[in-house]
Amino acid sequence: MAIRINYQILFLVLAILFVISGIIGLIDRGNAPYGGYLTEGNNTIIRIDAESPAARAGLKVGDYIRSVGGIPVENSRALAERVRPLIGQMDTLVVERRSATAPGAAPAILDVHLTYAASPTKNAALGFAGFIIGLCFVVCGLTAYARVPGRSAALLALTGLCLGVSFLGTPYFSSPSVRALVQSFLSIVVVLGFASLLHFVLESPKRKALLRQRHAMMLLYGPALMVALYLLFLIVVRPPATSGLNQLSNLLIGLFVVTYFGGAAIAMTHSYVTATPQERSGYGLNIELVGILIGILPVTIGLLLRVLAPSLALPGVEFYFLSVIFIPIVLVVAVLRQAPAAGR
To answer: Mapping DSSP to helix (H, G, I), strand (E, B) and coil, where does residue 175 land?
Structure first.
């Protein structure tokens, strides 16, 4: 006897768990230490916040971090198992600093003593904004699936859950094993979210020709599976974080996000261009296209520039993700409009 899964109940249970986890994580953000510097993914500082612990400690843009708290930056396993520093705790960072007046000289090796502070108001506000975006993804997806059960709405609900949990966040766990388990789960779920978003756009409002191809699902979800396996390899094996590996990881993840987000934008544009004026209005394609482009383009451009020019510190880059909130809003509006339009 075949077992039929009630996906609405399953999605609802997962949503409740994700939101509860996000609330606990949001409360815990007040305990997160703040250093006030940004690296380009390969341990070279590209930005230092004014009046931050990093600025007070004397760190400078261009410093290459060799070790943190006595742990070399290449030792990814030891860093992953390290307990989160407390607010007020001091860490010693060993950095390489090249002289601006003598470019050919060997870099100076400096010990920098950084005392962590509580997150500033801006960071706390951005964390709360991220939680609201995640909540919006989850609620919009479930609303669409509850109102209009069907393939498109189910894909939107799945997308909302997978991408929503990445914004909702999770609490901090002191156990390294639990942190690795949670990180592995989130990696798989978020990668699935990007793939399901592209699948949704290819499915709605009319199924694209690509999905009728024999190996369509392999082409759609295969790259996402490979990226998920690579992330699991990094989390479980914890290979030495060499410069080459860091650059490969940044390139792979950046191109993955750009490809799937960009693919969704292209597919949405195709739906709009090939639709009649009546279909654009009836299916809600006008608002969907504008919302998708506004929601995707800032993040996609930011990630693409990060891949092409990792040492470039974009102004206001920490705010780019806020545009993503347009995505679940316009998609749920479009799905709710497409159901009666398809029935006419």
So the answer is: coil
